Amino acid sequence: MNYSDLLEISKAFMILFAVIDIVGSIPIIIKIKKSAGDIRPLKASIVALGIMLAFLFIGDGILGFLGVDTKAFAVAGSLIIFALAVEMIFGIQLFKEEDDETKKIVSIVPIAFPIIAGAGSMTTIVSLQAEFHLINIAIAIFLNIIIVFIVLKLTKRIENFLGKGGIAVLQKVFGIILLAIAVKLFADNVKELF
Q1: What is the separation of C-alpha 138 from the centre of its chain, rounded to a whole number of angstroms?
Q2: Angle, CA 103 vertex, CA 14 and CA 159 arms, to 5°
Q3: Where are the beta strands (DSSP E) in the chain?
Q4: What span, in angstroms and rounded, lies between the C-alpha atoms of 70 and 67?
Q5: What is the mean pLDDT of residues 151-161?
Q6: pLDDT bucket at 2, cuts 50 / 70 / 90
Q7: Mean pLDDT confidence for 134-151
Q8: Dist. CA 28–CA 18, nearest whole Å
Q9: Residue 89 and residue 170: Cα distance in Å, rounded?
Q10: For 50-104, how does the pLDDT look when each residue is reduced to its tens digit (9 = 90+)?
């Protein structure tokens, strides 16, 4: 593995880490655990990994079948990432939460999907294909899922360690990083469409 591959993996890893925002999701995960019982970290992680890898390898084919260009999807993705960043920075809700019926299968819905492998993650995965090699994105996804598993396993300890203030600060920091990524992704791809 050469330097450019490591650089691509680390960039893709950081982008996905910011989008998945598993640390920022700790308050939501704790709330779900209290209302629905315990979650299964391994099951949730494996399902999320499967969803994300499937979208990485066949998402482009689905887009091609629908007649949507990867660059156009990247631009659309940048707008979704922008909206996610706005949510994180300003603490407002733009995306509708899942209803109570869907929350019954907590390890899969909403933990694996849509909290971990949600619309933002899917869009980002397809968007990253405009800049990085598939194998490097796959490695970045796998590394993120390892972090997700560790965080799910240690949710309560992390919450106690960071406190409400620490989690709030992390959300803001990752929100600003996401905002910068969204602007760059938009600028890099929108010119290709015209």
Answers
A1: 13
A2: 50
A3: none
A4: 10
A5: 86
A6: confident
A7: 96
A8: 16
A9: 10
A10: 999 998 998 878 878 888 877 787 788 788 778 878 887 888 877 655 555 544 5
Q: What is the pTM of this model?
A: 0.74
Whether pLDDT at 166 is above 80: yes
Q: How far is CA 23 from CA 3, 44, 96, 150, 194, in A?
A: 28, 15, 20, 10, 38
Query: Any idea what DSSP says for residue 68?
Result: -
What's the DSSP call for residue 192? G
The amino acid present at 115, given as its one-letter code, is: I
Identify which of 91, 93, 114, 86 has the alpha carbon closest to the alpha carbon of residue 22.
Answer: 114
SS3 129: coil
Looking at residue 99, what is its pLDDT? 53
d(CA 17, CA 135): 17
- Whether the ω angle into residue 114 lies within 30 degrees of 0, i.e. cis, is yes
Residue 118 backbone class (left: φ over 0; alpha: ψ -120 to 50; beta: rest): beta
